[in-house]
Amino acid sequence: MVGPEGVRAARGDLDLERTWRSVTKMLTGYACGAALDRGIVSLDDAAGPEGSTLRHLLAHASGFFYDSDGVLMAPGRRRHYSNYGIDEAGRHVERALGRDFGDWVAEQVLEPLGMDRVRWTGSPSVGAFGPIADLALFAGELLRPTLLSPETFAAVTTVQLGELVGIMPGFGKQEPNPFGLGFEVRGAKSPHWTGGRNDPATFGHFGMQGTALWVDPSARLALVVGTAHEFCDAHREVLPRLSDAVLAQHA
């Protein structure tokens, strides 16, 4: 559990390397935000399928399939969760930079925050590995942002492209299914991996290897979780209960 001042409570092995999977998307969103702040790219850049922009890619609204360049629908019609779309967003920024996107993530996010044990294995959507202690450093940044302008931080962590309907992996159809740029936004989703006490503005992500991070801006708290096995029914039950318990005790 993390507050603006740092870690408030912790249990378990914080130094064991874990597979972050889709938690990686938040690092990508943040690194893309750094490129936005420097004028290297724009959210309105054409990127992805015809009619799609960088904003569509980062907000899961480009129309790309989950894991391929096949196009399911026109951009902006539905929140169709796509690892391929996030990877393509990373490639778009990489082309604009003229350098490796992973190096950019390290330079703009990991190194400034001291996240020196994170391994970036190539995929902007699912490629990061690291200990929970390093993920807690990122949670602290999200509570007291220093690396992005206020305007870009707001864009990254709040709802983009309106109230689109879509499938939330692991939790079924959500109406609406809000996302920011690489970050999921809780909204009124039910069922959900955060708790019933979490503010609708809560943002974060979970990964299918059992790692998760949420930030509740109203409570000024963050929770970082790492487990030892793939996401399953136990996570669906325990994560919301844990979130509610943390908020009940510390918010």
From TrEMBL:
Superkingdom of this protein's organism: Bacteria
Gene3D superfamilies: DD-peptidase/beta-lactamase superfamily
SUPFAM superfamilies, per the entry: beta-lactamase/transpeptidase-like
Record-linked Pfam families: Beta-lactamase
Domain Beta-lactamase-related: 21-227
Name of the molecule in the record: Beta-lactamase class C and other penicillin binding proteins
